[in-house]
Target: Serine hydrolase domain-containing protein
Amino acid sequence: MFRRPNSDRGTWIAAWVDRDGVPEMVRDHIPPYSPDHLVEWGSITKAVTATAVRIAITEGLFSGGDEVARLLPRLPEAHFSVLELLEHRSGLPRMAHPIRALFRRDPYADVVGRRLDPATVVPLLPRGDHLYSNLGYAVLGEVLDATVASWWDWAVDRVLAPAGVTTATLHPSPPARVLPRDRAGRPLEPWSVGAGPYAAAGGVWSTFDDLCRFLGAAAHETTTPPGWQSAPGADVINGATRHSRACAIRPSGGSRVLVAHGLRLGARLERKSVELARASRIGVGREE
Model:
């Protein structure tokens, strides 16, 4: 069992997950983590949305080549396809508005309980150029809303429930959230991403075990799973929010997935996860 050394600045937990979704903890729960409390998924939510969209395409509700302006007439400048949104090739910026300097302000607060402003859904780069976009996945959520009534209900029914996930929510009870604390012991508030249109880009919370169950399903995939990225020697996915970070590594040819979640570690979580994977003698490519 790996334990947190005294030199760690921040807290993290990790587990290997097999194809049955059973987590094998290699860094166990330590406060403020608890098996019954909820962790932020951040942009790992995009894998849920991407899978939900793929299922809708498979069932013929729309096609990957459909132009979004046709599916959503209220967004007249959305001259890109569903597939381009999925692959971050729509040209849309990361956010409708810049994230405030040093993250001092919740960048999602202005859109809580509101729909996307059509004036902000305008590509920044030419169609087809790659630009990672939370805004793009917010638009995908609206595409599903317009097609199946609720992207979240569809995702729960078609994506999360089949993976055995039962605790996922966009609106976690404050006492149930895993959050870091300030020097006075007060929890540091998360961003409000799940309370508005960006929920489809990064709003999910669940227990760590359920995060593992969802990501462990990737062990069944023969290609890079929806919403994941291909890296040297592995498929990877991560999600970063105000204070939390989650990541997963599926080594090429492996039958297990390494899942990690950290508080106040930033990109160090990915480095620690790669080191942990290598220590387990599982082939993972060099970090880029």
In short: The helical segments are 45-58, 68-71, 82-86, 134-148, 151-160, 199-202, 208-216, 268-279. Confidence is low (pLDDT under 50) at residues 1-8, 282-288. Strands lie at 11-17, 23-27, 38-40, 205-207, 229-231, 234-240, 244-251, 257-263.
